[in-house]
Known about the structure:
The chain is of the alpha+beta class and 110 residues long. It is built from three helices and three strands, in the order H-H-E-E-E-H. The protein has helices at residues 10-22, 30-38, 81-96, and strands spanning 50-55, 58-67, 71-78. A hairpin with a 2-residue loop joins strand 1 (50-55) and strand 2 (58-67). The mean pLDDT is 76.
Amino acid sequence: MKRRPPDxxxxxxxxxxxxxxANPLVKFSSSTVFRTRYAPTHNxxxxxxxxxxxxxxxxxxxxALAVGKKKKIYSKCYKTPEEAAQAxxxxxxxxxxxxxVLNFPGDPSA
Length: 110
C-alpha cells in the first residue's frame, strides 16, 4: 500500500489521475503521477532533479531527468542549484509538456 500525504483528498487525487489519463501526450501511468507529483524531494538542494557533482576540483550542480526505467537525460554543469533547477524545468517541459512537474511552476519563461 502506498502512503499518501494527508493534505490531498482522494477526490483531488482521482481528478488529477483522470486529467492525466485524458491527455494523450502523457507518457506515464497514473501510478507514476502519484509518485512524481505528490512525493516530496528528499535532497539537500531543495530542487527536484538537481544534484551536486565534482568537476575536477570544483563543485558544480547538474540536472538529471529520468525518462522511463533505464534512461536519464543530463544537463551541463551549472554554478548554482537554481540554474540547474531551471535547466531541469526546461528538460521536463520538453519531455512531458503541460504534465511536467516543475521546480518553478509559475515561471513566465515557459
